[in-house]
Amino acid sequence: MQSKKLFFMVFLLVSTFGAYGQIIDVEVTAQVSEIDDMDNVFGEAVGVDDELLLTYSFDTDADNLESGDRATYFMDNLSMQVNLSSYEFQSQAITIIVANNRFGEDFYMVTGTENFPVNGLPTFEYTMYLHLGDASSQVIDNTSINQNIDLLEGWTSANIYLQGHDRGSIFYITSDVTDIQIVPEPTTIALMGSGVWGILRKNRA
Fold first, then answer.
1. Which residue stretches of the chain have pLDDT < 50?
2. Closest Cα to residue 121, out of 160, 95, 90, 79?
3. Non-local CB neighbours of 101 within 8 Å, separated by 6+ positions
4. What pLDDT does residue 192 have?
5. What confidence score (pLDDT) does residue 205 get?
6. Phi-psi sector, 178: left (phi>0), alpha (psi -120 to 50), beta
7. Which of 89, 71, 87, 70 is nearest to 79 (CA)?
8. Is residue 106 a contact partner of residue 137, using CB atoms and an 8 Å limit?
9. How does DSSP assign the chain, residue by residue?
10. Which pLDDT score is estimated for 80?
11. Closest CA to 132 of 104, 160, 166, 167
12. What are the backbone angles phi and psi of residue 158, rounded to the nearest 5°?
């Protein structure tokens, strides 16, 4: 019985911290501010002021593929999802780029790779990404993947871009970010991990 408890606690610890590092989930809510749907792909289903939800996960131990004032983190085991009206888009992988005072600007960008629609849309080439920028270069002071991006008041621009194209732009949607939630917060993960570790030590004693 004791070994079963230990196995469960180890499983919970691994699930909490992930196979590679801490896996952080992010939920970004935005409001559509501009639509250019030249081929009427969405019809009347999507309009200005509609809510858009972007979610993605990232690994806190992901490797930086660059150096200097810009960092690039590619994660082929994690993905991005965008929900807009009844439509859903997903990616096979994600890339996060963090720039600190690059040409006088800070920015944090998350891009989906190999994106595709889940329902109701043609198989165009799709682009979707989150872009947070600060022209004053005061929001971040390093290029770590672990940034307090949920502090919206620090960014001078915060947008989600969704595009579909096939030999030319088919549609282009811009949304203004209204809220960013990190689920769970990194401090919560640390507390959960320490709690599980405490139980493990108690059971071994």
1. 1-19, 186-197, 199-202, 204
2. 90
3. 69, 137
4. 47
5. 54
6. alpha
7. 89
8. yes
9. -HHHHHHHHHHHHHHHH-SSS-EEEEEEEEEEEEEE-TT-SSTTS--TT-EEEEEEEEETTPPP---TTEEEEEETT--EEEEETTEEEE-SEEEEEEEEEETTEEEEEEEEES-EESSSS---EEEEEEEEEETTS-S-SS--S---TT-GGG-SEEEEEEEEESSSEEEEEEEEEEEEEEES-HHHHHHHHHHHHHHHHHHH-
10. 97
11. 160
12. -150, 105
| Domain regions of the chain by residue span | 24-183
Calpha distance 88→121 (Å, rounded):
9
Sign, CA dihedral 132-138-141-147, equals negative
What would the pLDDT profile of 15-67 be if each residue is shown by its tens digit?
Answer: 444 445 789 999 999 999 999 998 888 988 999 999 999 999 999 999 999 98
Which residues fall within 8 angstroms of residue 86, CB to CB, at 6 or more apart? 45, 119, 120
Identify which of 173, 181, 182 has the alpha carbon closest to the alpha carbon of residue 31.
Answer: 173
What tokens does 60 get? Answer: 């806190």
Which among 59, 52, 72, 51 is positioned nearest to 25, based on CA atoms? 59
